[in-house]
Write a structure and sequence with these properties.
The chain is of the alpha+beta class and 255 residues long. It has seven helices and 13 strands. The strands form two sheets. Strands 2-3-4-5-6-7-8-9 form an eight-stranded mixed sheet. The chain has a five-stranded antiparallel sheet with strand order 1-13-12-11-10, with no helix packed on it. Strand 11 and strand 12 form a beta hairpin.
Length: 255
């Protein structure tokens, strides 16, 4: 997939921005007594994993947002799920911190407070979870949509995780940093291409590009999952016999 059409971007790609939909495997152990509203911590083998909440985006729900159902059916489905039926869809943002015992890894970085006023709780929740941004050793990026990469920097361009190596899918880098794609883009897609450049251009020499199908750091393997974006990547996290799959933007809302 070398090009994204504006229709696909608006209707399918850019709309699906619920960061890191993470499933908890049966073998994971919740660390009771060490939870709070802004994060959820559990163990996987010898690893400690912490899901960090970055707030929610109340996205306007256009009539054609759900392609295989009528607006009335969508509204009824929302009501059945005890969700608001006011014409918006609450889309949560979450990033995952993985502590292997020897390294602290962050899978995606949230919105950086640069998407919606109701989606800028990551920093506070990271601190509440007892994780210092300076202690992050590695950032793994699943894809280049703003709610996954904007948290790398503040609005003023200062790196939030100053000691972290940044590793990104090679396919994502190739697409979003390609001048030909920028020159041929219009409207929304151009905004996202320019945003990726804003985040990465001045730190390009420090960004490692990885190919899917191999271990990107001990215990974490990248899996090719193109479609949402050209280089979209999922990850498996494994510790001993325990493992789980980390999926980003599989759906807009769990229900």
């Amino acid at each position: 997939m070398s090009r994204l059409s504006r229709r696909n971007v608006l209707a399918g790609g850019m709309a699906a921005v619920a960061t890191a939909s993470i499933s908890l495997p049966a073998s994971a152990e919740v660390t009771a007594g060490n939870q709070a509203a802004g994060f959820y911590r559990y163990r996987l083998g010898t690893f400690t994993l912490t899901a960090i909440n970055d707030g929610v985006w109340h996205r306007p729900l256009e009539d054609n947002f759900v392609r295989n159902a009528t607006p009335a059916e969508v509204k009824q489905a929302l009501a059945n799920a005890f969700m608001p039926t006011d014409g918006t869809l609450p889309i949560p943002f979450t990033a995952l911190a993985v502590d292997t015992g020897s390294k602290r890894i962050l899978i995606d970085t949230g919105t950086g407070g640069q998407i919606a006023p109701t989606a800028q709780t990551f920093d506070a929740n990271l601190k509440a979870a007892g994780i210092d941004a300076k202690s992050i050793d590695l950032i793994l990026i699943s894809h280049f949509h703003p709610d996954h990469i904007n948290g790398i920097k503040t609005k003023d361009g200062v790196r939030v995780f100053p000691n972290a190596e940044i590793a990104v899918p090679a396919g994502e880098w190739a697409y979003w940093m390609d001048d030909a794609n920028l020159n041929g883009a219009t409207d929304t897609l151009r905004f996202y291409l320019l945003n990726a450049r804003r985040i990465f251009r001045d730190i390009a020499k420090d960004v490692r590009r990885f190919e899917p199908g191999r271990e990107v750091t001990p215990g974490i393997t990248a899996i090719a999952a193109p479609g949402h974006t050209p280089g979209h990547t999922a990850f498996t996290v494994a510790s001993g016999p325990a493992s789980m799959l980390v999926l980003s933007d599989t759906t807009n809302h769990p229900w």
